[in-house]
Amino acid sequence: MASLLIFVFVNILLAQGEIILTNYSAGLKNSPLFSIVRNSGSKSLYVGGRNVLLQLDSDLNLIASVTKGPKRYAFSCEPESDCPNGSLQPNDIKVLGISERKDKLLACGTANQGLCTLHSFTNISNFVRVGGTKTGYLVGSKESAIMVNSKTSDNGSIDFLYVFHQYDERNHAFSPPAMSLRQLVRDQQSFTMDYVHEVNHISTISALGISDSYFMSFVGYFKHKNYLYIVTNQHMSTKQDTIFRPRIGRICYGPSRDTLFHTYIEIELQCKSEDWLYDKVTTISFDGEKLYIAAVMLQPGTASTANTSRGSALCSAYLTNIDKFFRQAVYACFNQQPDAQLLPWTIRDRKCEKALLDSHGLNWDELCYLRRNDGIQGLKPLPMDLITTIDSQVTVIRANGNNALTVGDEDGYIRKVTEKEYLKFQLSKFPIGPQMEVDEDGNEFILAGDQVFKVPRSCMFYTDCGSCVSSEDPLVCGWCQTTKQCTMETECTNWTRDICQPVIEKVSPEAGPLEGGTTLQIYSKMFAKELPEDDLQIKVGDIQCKLFNQGMFRVTCITPPGKGNQPIKMRMTDSDSYKIRPYKISGETEYHLPFQYKNPQVTKFEPTRGPQAGGTIITIEGKNLDIGSHVKVTAAGIDCELYPRRTTNNITCITKEWDAKLGRKKRVASRARGSGSIEITIDSVVRSSNEKFFFLPDPHVKSISPGRSIVSGGIPITVQGTNLDASVSPLMSATHGNNDLNLTTECVVKPGGEEMVCPSLNVAGKIEVKQYETVHVYFLFDNNKIPADHRKSENSFPFLMELNLKIEQQKPEISPVEVEAKHSH
């Protein structure tokens, strides 16, 4: 109902900033929206979605809505049946048509075998169901379907409709032909739709039928002069059921010219990028001179699964060239040449008949009345011109004239393209819908998920001066210095395309110490060359930030001392323009975030000791530890290598090996090789801890006892040696053969560092133990392995794992293992 439908403004985030677009949301239960048409007289928009039909005004205000589903459905159910044995399925309103003759909207869904309803233009809540006989009133398909209003006839009460319908596995009794001409007739208060041949009692079918096994989907159509063009994806031939090709077909347009599809001709469209053939068309558009298509590459052997790694290709062809290939196909068929044949996919099996036909004097109007060689397929593909490739699957395109295209894709992006892409922004997180409309002012109405967007014909999508004046937009956008917006020249009295004020895009870092000395990096696409000091000045607060490096898109300066939050200001003058920046710079700017002066502090750290070999991970706590451009940490004068991530309260580093030449702090513990405070240097400022860190001699393991354990582990193992307390949390681990068991247990060190106790490892599931199995034990002291090469016999601690739980009864007796381990650092 209308109360559930939401009208909102949506913020669209661009690379340069943010804009606001008018948007209407139908609710996720009605997503996706499939179809949209516009009544140029009333300016109303009609939108078909999942189980809903909407009527909106030109500002996307809701006028009326009609719930169309879900409905019970099965492929075997009669069209007008309630289908009690069917499953509840959505009714997708994919086909909409305008009948100006009847002042009605024709809407066809996927339920009830594709039944249609006729709705009042002024209020779609007033509607009637369209009836008929056999399959002549069924339009919608769960696959693809297209309906085209034909030219008006002399009979003012009849609408002629071309219907293109893809087979969707339904019961044959309810399956219309692939292509047909229908007429919509009003009889008092009811409306009926039937095939033209049935109403006029013509014996020949006014449709082209295809076999169920032949794949044909319908992508889009356009009308030009006296012809109707339809683009399809088909099997390449009736004999090649795993290869598919796009084709364009043409028919003489209008019921007075061809009611029987005699004049239908088709040729293959070939869209290639380098040697890659894009063999499925996803959408088309026509601008009066050129056909534009978007195509994807199919996965081999499939009719619909795209190779996503290749994205989409945009290709074009002049209509004059397309008609030239049609003419060649007709001439080849009438002369029984190999470049043409009669349609192989129709129910009829025929061959081209030879007849006199002058290719140069061929009158296309006369061809519309020929009754020989009807239904021709040209076998010579039409090579199209590649415009560009896009790294996503294109869902909709619209030609805007002057070779400009609006392109929507499955990732929710809208692109503007000429020979190359000149604008891109994400309109929605949902795929862009398969149809769009445009009004007289160039506003585009675009579908995405459950939403309709109104996208104006405007320069507003360029939200800063640089992107505005350097854009290649056909609108010829420039910067309005009065309103500080990107506009067309007619929309502004103080407009320019060759000069901009400077812009700071990014500053790093955003904070530094009170004493200054921070290397401040300022990024802007406006930096194109080194400028003299008079032409480029940067200040933090009111004090100069001393420049020392200028490069492409970035300059660097050293911050002065300061307090609190200070603005970052830049004054710049550059009277030259360049290829990378085709405009001049003059003026001042201020970055949107201030530079923050803060006082870093160290409050504590842990652990307070580690082996002289290094490898101890030290966690330092404090305040404002994430500021500045350059950070260095030392432990007792020895470098401590920083982990990449810093937070405002935490820094982590890992100690390097202690060296007597580097460690100059006074030794304050009897066994310490060296000791001293933790020092953090941020830019030019040093902060120290009150506590000291001690480098202890590397640990030495002499013996372990007992030398055996049960498989499930947990037996206390006594380890003897020296300096075992060099690490706060030593670990025991082991290998079996050449494989590390990747198991550890934490050891507890007794005072003095000469003894520690480690629970034995639980190796259940890691190794198979039948009765006894030997593993080799080693120890980790802050990432230092002791013994370093524990598999060598002279360094080895062999350890026996036993299956029986009562280890005191096991044989043979094993004495404690004593090995003088040779350690390596």
From TrEMBL:
What sequence ranges are listed for the domain Sema?
11-457
> Does Ion transport count among this protein's keywords?
no
Q: Where in the cell is it found?
A: Membrane
Identify the main location.
Answer: membrane
Source organism, top-level taxon = Eukaryota
Gene Ontology cellular-component annotations: membrane
**Keyword rRNA-binding applies:** no
Q: Which SMART domains does the UniProt record give? A: IPT, PSI, Sema
Name the UniProt key words of this record, in alphabetical order.
Answer: Disulfide bond, Glycoprotein, Membrane, Receptor, Repeat, Signal, Transmembrane, Transmembrane helix
Q: How does the record say this protein sits in the membrane?
A: Single-pass membrane protein
What PROSITE patterns does the annotation carry? SEMA
InterPro entries from the UniProt entry: Ig-like_fold (IPR013783), Ig_E-set (IPR014756), IPT_dom (IPR002909), Plexin (IPR031148), Plexin_repeat (IPR002165), PSI (IPR016201), Semap_dom (IPR001627), Semap_dom_sf (IPR036352)
Per the UniProt entry, the signal peptide is: 1-17
Q: Which GO terms describe its molecular function?
A: semaphorin receptor activity
CDD domains for this protein: IPT_PCSR
PANTHER family per record: PLEXIN (PTHR22625), PLEXIN A, ISOFORM A (PTHR22625:SF70)
Q: Which family does it belong to?
A: Belongs to the plexin family.
| Name by which UniProt lists this protein | Hepatocyte growth factor receptor-like
> What is the species of this protein?
Plakobranchus ocellatus
